[in-house]
Amino acid sequence: MSFKQMSETAEATAHDAAAEIARLRSQVETLMNERVTPMLGSVANSAEHAAKAATEEVRHQAARLSDAVHDKPLAAIGIAALAGFVLASILRR
Prior knowledge:
The chain is mainly α. The protein has one domain. The protein is 96% helix and 0% strand. The protein is built from two helices and no strands. Helix 1 packs across helix 2. The mean pLDDT is 90.
């Protein structure tokens, strides 16, 4: 095999490799556009809905707690004191 033939074979191989890389790159872009991007959008929407639901639940529970403290202030003080005592006991260990 002559130097020219080896050079031509190397160039052809390099050209084939470049074409294969371009084809694979195109396939990856297609997959990203058709599957990954919509899936990420769906996950983001689900996360947004979950965050909104969690926020609403926290607001609801805070309102219930506020009403309970308003209705029974002495019980609320007693519960808070007991919780503080238990927490302090745990943290001392």
